[in-house]
Design brief:
globular; binds iron/sulfur cluster; 2 domains; 18 helices; alpha+beta; six-stranded antiparallel beta sheet; seven-stranded antiparallel beta sheet; Rossmann fold; Glutamine Phosphoribosylpyrophosphate, subunit 1, domain 1
Length: 498
């Protein structure tokens, strides 16, 4: 869906036996490229005790072979980290800004150096950065987080102690990887475990590492991996030894949206494959809304994340699935930040529909989620124009009516079609006969767990600062005010205290 929130970021950290770490990082980042299209980068700890960084703009698949080989020659080492980015914080106005914010980022303070790559959002960024020493780089939350960590690291020369301390002050969601100048790769998952981070090793291929999603490890031969526990720190030394410990943990709240939309279908989170969960989500929708489901003629998935759910819907109802909507793969424009007229044009060109498959039929249109609704209303309009008799929308994710402050780019109330509207209102706006959202209890059944974050659905945030931010944002939205940017960057200058 073009109006769906963009993927946030993907991170990886690997230790190999030889000194050719760059090629492992490259393959992992390629596998994570769906999580960030704007920039990519790698950092390598070399045998002389230095960390070297290379970055680029766009997709990592755009990196030419010659440039990759140059990186492989110049960045020799056994420890490295990598990052693909979609900005959910920082400045977005120019290529120079995007390049300056590309990660990994490195900093030096009182003779010590650290380098990190980060996925998530610091919600009380302005508040915590007020306390940073003069001259600190505050241009994005990654820079500020790095500086905060570095200042504590300088005081105690211990990553675990520095992390424990700064996470007492920070609000938000974080998964990060980093390199110290003494040859340690560290990886940390936030105390609520909101953002994903997998750990795995393989003696056969001589690798140990962490990554946002398990396929980024599997691509390098680490077939078995497990999700880090909330607040867990992993330290991998240059000699290959590994230390794992809980630094600070709270009740687990893993992002439910990873299952519905963000993650690759072949990713494994907490013991199950995402495609299995999605198939189950489709079944659950067909069961919950069986009165509507049994009367439809054809199931149409919105490509591509809804395809597994459409198959589950088919298994439950026996109705045929038709790949009616064909998406142009190479259209790279970001429809949701372009002016309205251009945006319409992009939507028009982004999808082609095989219209004769729906003429006179009652359609079950399956989508992973409904965020802003632009694409969906366009598709419904075209389906109706092609003679579809009825169009019933089924969303595998429950109704999103609150912003996310945890690294997903849907950070205001007003942009959400589900804000302050019930199902009938949303159906009317979309031009659908009905809109049928997944129930939270059915979603948890499909995942086989209930310790999930549904803050964008319920408005109940696992961290107090985000809760406060949401309450202020909701008040502003009901008063007719409009946040000119992401709520955590504009409301109260980030000064409201948890
Ligand atoms: S608010 Fe929604 S999108 Fe954000 S972390 Fe929670 S479930 Fe995921």
């Amino acid at each position: 869906m073009s109006d769906a929130p963009r993927e946030h970021c993907g991170i990886v950290g690997i230790r190999c036996r030889d000194e050719g770490i760059v090629s492992y990082l490259y393959w992992s980042l390629l596998t994570l490229n769906h999580r960030g299209h704007e920039s990519y980068g790698v950092a390598v700890f070399n045998p002389y005790g230095h960390v070297s960084i290379e970055k680029g703009l766009g997709l990592i698949s755009d990196l030419g072979l010659e440039e990759l080989h140059a990186w492989e020659r110049e960045l020799r080492g056994r420890l490295g980290i990598g990052h693909v980015r979609y900005a959910t914080s920082g400045q977005l106005s120019s290529k120079a800004d995007l390049f300056a914010d590309a990660q990994p980022v490195a900093d030096e303070y009182l003779g010590k150096n650290l380098c990190i790559a980060f996925n998530g959002n610091v919600t009380n960024l302005l508040e915590v950065t007020e306390e940073l020493a003069g001259g600190a780089n505050r241009r994005s939350d990654a820079h500020a987080l790095l500086r905060l960590l570095l200042e504590e690291y300088v005081k105690r020369d211990d990553v675990a102690g520095a992390l424990r301390l700064i996470f007492e002050e920070l609000g938000g969601a974080f998964a990060l990887v980093g390199l110290t100048e003494s040859g340690e790769l560290f990886a940390f998952k936030d105390p609520h475990g909101i953002r994903p981070l997998s750990y795995g090793f393989s003696d056969d291929v001589g690798l140990v590492g962490v990554a946002s999603e398990s396929p980024a490890l599997a691509v390098n031969g680490i077939g078995l991996s497990e999700e880090l526990r909330p607040g867990e720190l992993v330290i991998i030394s240059d000699d290959g030894s590994v230390e794992r410990k809980i630094v600070r943990s709270e009740c687990e709240c893993f992002c439910a949206f990873e299952y519905a939309y963000f993650a690759r279908p072949d990713s494994r989170f907490r013991g199950c494959y995402v495609y299995e969960v999605r198939r189950e989500l489709g079944r659950k929708l067909a069961q919950r809304y069986h009165e509507i489901a049994r009367n439809i003629d054809v199931i149409v998935p919105v490509p591509q994340t809804a395809e597994d759910a459409a198959y589950g819907f088919h298994l439950e109802t026996g109705k045929p699935v038709e790949p009616v909507i064909v998406r142009h793969r190479y259209l790279k424009h970001r429809a949701f930040i372009t002016p309205a007229e251009q945006r319409k044009l992009i939507l028009l060109h982004k999808y082609n529909l095989l219209l004769d498959r729906v003429r006179g039929k009652r359609v079950a249109l399956i989508d992973d989620s409904i965020v802003r609704g632009d694409t969906l209303s366009h598709i419904i309009h075209v389906l109706r124009g092609a003679g579809a008799r009825e169009v019933h929308v089924f969303s595998t994710f429950p109704k999103i009516s609150n912003p996310c402050f945890y690294g997903i780019d849907m950070a205001t109330f007003q942009e959400l079609i589900g804000f302050n509207r019930d199902e009938e209102d949303v159906a009317r706006l979309l031009g659908a006969d009905s809109v049928n959202y997944q129930r939270i209890e059915d979603f948890c059944d499909a995942v086989g767990a209930s310790n999930l974050c549904f803050a964008c659905v319920t408005g109940g945030y696992p961290t107090p600062y985000a809760q406060k931010l949401a309450e202020e944002g909701r008040k502003l939205a009901f008063e007719g005010g409009r946040a000119e940017g992401r709520l955590f960057e504009v409301i109260g200058g980030g000064r409201c205290r948890a």
